[in-house]
Design goal:
Blueprint (H helix, E strand, L loop, with lengths): L1 H21 L9 E5 L3 H7 L4 H21 L4 E8 L7 H20 L4 E5 L7 H12 L8 E8 L1 H18 L4 H7 L2 H5 L12 E4 L18 E4 L9 H12 L8
Parallel strand pairs: 1-2, 1-5, 2-4, 3-4, 5-6
């Protein structure tokens, strides 16, 4: 009897999910979705499990999210996997987390379905982690599928500082003086040196776990983004939660900062 009831629930949920997606016309769907995968540690604590099990459960959810994004016509996805603040966690937690992230990114690349990019201050990572992530991303060069930005060792302020630093170095190498650089500097110039350069800014930013703040995620790029906050911890995030976020986005009148 229990299997029957679960089966009926799956049927009902499936019908509801299809109805929600059909109710959002393709032109009203986000092109770029950014997700703060928050709540792994609290998910594990609520179950009396170790922190690593929460991080692994979160990593196991990523591929499902990307499949949902593909179905919705999303072209770019940015996943915040590790912040610069997280690098200060105890080594007993950070070490296993880095291995989980390395494996998760490698698994995404191995599918050959998505173009994986690494966004973050990888110089702050252990050399073996940085090398693993870069190798995974390089293996997807030429893949024409959805672009998946894996934000690792990422901080919004750090990104802006790195962008300005990179811009100054490149202009200086071209022979420009500091005064010349300052006089001609534009917003677009800085944007061309961000980790996500060449990509559209996120239309929709989703944060799980009930927290309603950005915490430094895509500070520059999210200036005109729409935000959706979901109560579920990341490992419990469902297809229907994603579709509700897309529907909420489609129902808003975007003012693009005005």
């Amino acid at each position: 009897m229990r299997r029957v009831s679960v089966g009926w629930r799956d049927v009902v949920y499936g019908a509801y999910e299809r109805q929600v997606l059909r109710g959002v016309p393709p032109e009203a769907r986000p092109r770029h979705v950014a997700v703060m995968l928050d709540g792994n540690r609290r998910w594990a604590k609520a179950r009396g499990a170790g922190t690593a099990s929460g991080h692994q459960a979160g990593a196991d959810k990523i591929e499902s999210l990307l499949q949902w994004c593909e179905e919705a016509g999303v072209e770019y996805v940015t996943l915040w996997l590790l912040s610069t603040d997280n690098l200060g966690r105890p080594s007993a937690e950070l070490g296993p987390l880095l291995r989980i992230i390395e494996n998760a990114v490698a698994d995404l690349a191995a599918t050959r379905r998505w173009s994986v990019r690494i966004a973050g201050a990888t110089g702050l990572l252990p050399p073996e982690t940085a090398a693993s992530l870069q190798a995974s991303a390089a293996s997807t060069e030429g893949v024409s599928g959805m672009v998946v930005n894996c934000a690792v060792a990422y901080g919004g302020r750090r990104e802006i500082a790195d962008a300005v630093r990179d811009l100054l170095r490149s202009r200086g190498a071209a022979g420009q003086t500091l005064e010349q650089i300052a006089d001609g500097l534009t917003v677009e110039d800085i944007a061309q040196h961000l980790y996500t350069k060449g990509q559209p800014d996120p239309d929709l930013v989703i944060r799980t776990s009930g927290e309603q703040r950005l915490g430094g995620f895509l500070l520059w790029q999210s200036a005109t983004s729409e935000f959706y906050f979901c109560e579920a911890y990341w490992p419990d995030f469902r297809h229907v939660d994603f579709l509700r976020a897309v529907r909420a986005y489609a129902g808003r009148h975007r003012r693009h900062g005005s």
